Amino acid sequence: MLFFRKRKKVRSLDEERGKYGTLNHRNIGITAIELDKVVGSVDRHKDFDQNFEWMHRRPDGRSTAIEAAMARGEILPPIDVFELDNKYFVVDGHHRVRAAKKIGQEFMDANVTRLIPA
User: Fold this and answer.
1) Of residues 39 and 10, which shows the higher confidence score?
2) Domain 11-117, CATH number (from 3.30.70, 3.30.1450, 3.40.50, 3.90.1530)
3) Residue 89 pLDDT > 80, yes or no?
4) Which candidate, 28, 12, 31, places its Cα nearest to that of 79?
5) What's this model's pTM, rounded to 2 decimal places?
6) What are the pLDDT digits (tens) for 91-107?
7) How far is the C-alpha of 57 from the C-alpha of 19, rounded, in Å?
8) How far, in Å, are 46, 58, 92 from residue 78 at the CA level?
9) Domain boundaries of the chain, sorted by first residue
């Protein structure tokens, strides 16, 4: 008998920020972040599971090209994230996060905007 584990979607920033009320923004700039702390998305939380694998489709050419470039050690632009409660939510760079996690990368450069409860 086969059992299939239900995959969880990545967290939604809108759902998380609802717990805090008003939030102030502080631009931290580009810094290295731990990929294990990338837990959600601003607008694509239905597209990826908690490991940033596609929920409802197979990787496309863009995904595989980004993964191959990262595996070769190519430097790609930093991703954009919001930081809330020491967790990161992707604004731009979902494919790069997916590729980095898939090849076992632990850190990646990100342009970070910290959300701070008022």
Assistant:
1) 39
2) 3.90.1530
3) yes
4) 31
5) 0.85
6) 999 999 999 998 889 99
7) 31
8) 23, 24, 9
9) 11-117
